[in-house]
Request: fold
Amino acid sequence: MPARPPHLQRLGQVWLKNPIYFLTTCTYQRRCLLADPQVMMVLVAE
Reply:
């Protein structure tokens, strides 16, 4: 199996007042795990 590239690291400092983040996520067998209010709360909190 080929080695994966390293993950991007979170910036230590963001210079924008209200930055917008774009996330790409995948779930096993395309299950709708992310369409859940509790999961959304965790993602928003991060």
Remarks:
- The mean pLDDT is 82.
- The chain has one helix and no strands.
- The first helix runs from residue 37 to 45.
- Residues 7 and 24 are 13 Å apart (CA to CA).
